[in-house]
């Protein structure tokens, strides 16, 4: 799942600055999300067949759900480009995408450390994800302030404000992954 | 509580397509919500008097809270019709209401299975509720896209977008009930 | 942390009715939030050095997070005054601020009772916080209804609606503190 998050967020970041074919972009992002949903289904099925799990079943569930939320979040952002016919490039969206790429790599790193049972080393990527979320929150303030200062068409303002907010909420989802991991570390070390 | 959810959602669905008396509609929905709040109060009082509970006290609390959130959600939707003076019928709202009716019946079924200790059978309604939430998310995208394509008055757009989003969020609350139930099943089977 | 919440909310309430210097107001509110963040950091560091904790580590974590969310919420409200150049006094915002001051004092009382191990006495402030949240929800409905009835500029409406909603969401954060405390009481009494 964390590999798919990295792929999806890198695809989003690589394409969002220059959207030539919005329907294809939205469709590809939906495909990443469906792939992640299939992993969730597999994890649940395996969990129901397995008696002994390496960490608590509920922790596996919570982690699965929080990872799934990241992909749901970024896919929901991508869909708004299509729903709202947003095509012009936007430097703020590029900055959010870059933040999410960095956060996705930290998630991948943390999940790798979990699989290697290097629990205490997870704190480092968890802190990095929290820091990136703080930066995204600051970025949201800057770009919403700038939007209200420049955009006089209320409907255009509503569209772009929602995309900025959904991007920032996706960094909140990344932070939830970090918090879930920290709570697993706390219970298992 | 699940009976009251079914009643409230069916009342909402039966009336929302043709709102003759919005204040009465909002008042009746508030009454369902207050009834549910009284059940929450009774459950909490009983829980504080009881030493041995059939499932963990915290699970009872989590389930109670998630059921209460469904009614809070649908009541908050109903109140917006009054706050925003929305009277004209809207086919999308009817579709959301229908989705919620089906979800409410699955919740009732799942709670019945819990009371009968048929824990493993709960997976089926839980999956159905998740599927209905996915459909509601797709419906939200369709109707918000259509709203932005047709509604040129930004204030009308804000009103209707919020109602659609609150209806979709109520299906998220139904999904939270399903997830709470699945986690209870996981810990008790 | 609960002392800082009281300070921050009282400062917000004392100044919001007559905002002469919005940047200074937003900056001071940010300072309260940073102070709270430093407490969170200290709690986490201490928690990682300590073997035996008076209540479960996870409960300490959950409580810390929920207290932090209250300050994040009120600081986010304050920042919107600056982002949106909102300067004119607003009687509804004053009422929300008053609600939050009362809630903050109940939080402080509840945390004091926890520190004194008077667990059962925590129910009283917890109920008071829930009641204040209900009142804030009613207030939100009144002021949003009034806003739509009077404000014809959609961009002004968006700004003010968001501030009202964020204030109400901050009372939801207070309620989360109350719910976290009730669940700690339930597990420890």
UniProtKB/TrEMBL annotation, chains A, B, C:
The record's listing under InterPro entries reads:
PhoU-like_sf, Put_Phosphate_transp_reg, UPF0111_domain
Coiled-coil stretches noted in the UniProt entry, renumbered to this chain: none
Q: Please give the Pfam families that the UniProt record associates with this protein.
A: PhoU_div (PF01865)
What family does the database annotate?
Belongs to the UPF0111 family.
In terms of PANTHER family, this protein maps to:
UPF0111 PROTEIN YKAA
Protein name in the entry: DUF47 domain-containing protein
Question: What organism, scientifically named, is this protein from?
Answer: Paenibacillus roseus
- Classification of source organism: Bacteria, Bacillati, Bacillota, Bacilli, Bacillales
């Amino acid at each position: 799942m964390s590999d798919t998050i990295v792929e999806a967020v890198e695809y989003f970041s690589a394409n969002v600055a220059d959207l030539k074919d919005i329907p294809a972009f939205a469709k590809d992002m939906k495909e990443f999300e469906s792939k992640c949903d299939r992993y969730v289904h597999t994890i649940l099925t395996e969990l129901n067949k397995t008696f002994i799990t390496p960490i608590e079943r509920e922790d596996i569930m919570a982690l699965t759900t929080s990872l799934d939320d990241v992909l749901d979040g970024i896919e929901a952002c991508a869909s708004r480009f299509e729903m709202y016919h947003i095509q012009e490039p936007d430097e703020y969206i590029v900055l959010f995408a870059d933040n999410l790429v960095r956060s996705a790599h930290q998630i991948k790193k943390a999940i790798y450390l979990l699989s290697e049972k290097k629990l205490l080393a997870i704190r480092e990527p968890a802190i990095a994800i929290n820091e990136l979320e703080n930066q995204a929150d600051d970025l949201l303030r800057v770009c919403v302030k700038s939007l209200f200062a420049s955009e006089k068409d209320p409907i255009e303002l509503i569209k772009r404000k929602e995309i900025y907010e959904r991007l920032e909420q996706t960094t909140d989802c990344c932070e939830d992954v970090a918090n879930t991991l920290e709570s697993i570390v706390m219970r298992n070390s």
